[in-house]
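ok new one. same drill as before - structure tokens go in, u give me an amino acid for every spot. 81 of them this time. try not to just spam alanines like last time pls lmao
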């Protein structure tokens, strides 16, 4: 049984790799890798809300320059975007 936090990390890291972030393969990563790599890309956020969601969490593709970083094609993993 996988802990829920580790499961979420695996999903987010897999999505991040899919949309072009340079992160470790989640299946071979350990908690230390998540702790070190996470702040490097999880703090990249959409620019539309007071509490903007993290791009690797809610986007299926990175925001385009036309959107000014405010919108992206969203995935269906997390609904807080």
């Amino acid at each position: 049984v996988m802990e829920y936090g580790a499961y979420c990390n695996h999903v987010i890291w897999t999505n991040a790799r899919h949309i072009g972030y340079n992160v470790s393969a989640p299946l071979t990563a350990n908690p230390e890798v998540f702790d070190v790599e996470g702040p490097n890309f999880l703090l990249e956020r959409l620019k539309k809300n007071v509490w903007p969601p993290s791009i690797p969490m809610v986007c299926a593709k990175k925001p385009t320059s036309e959107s000014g970083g405010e919108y992206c094609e969203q995935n269906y993993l997390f609904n807080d975007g």
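Residues 4-18 form the longest helix (15 residues). and btw Helices lie at 4-18, 31-41, 55-58.
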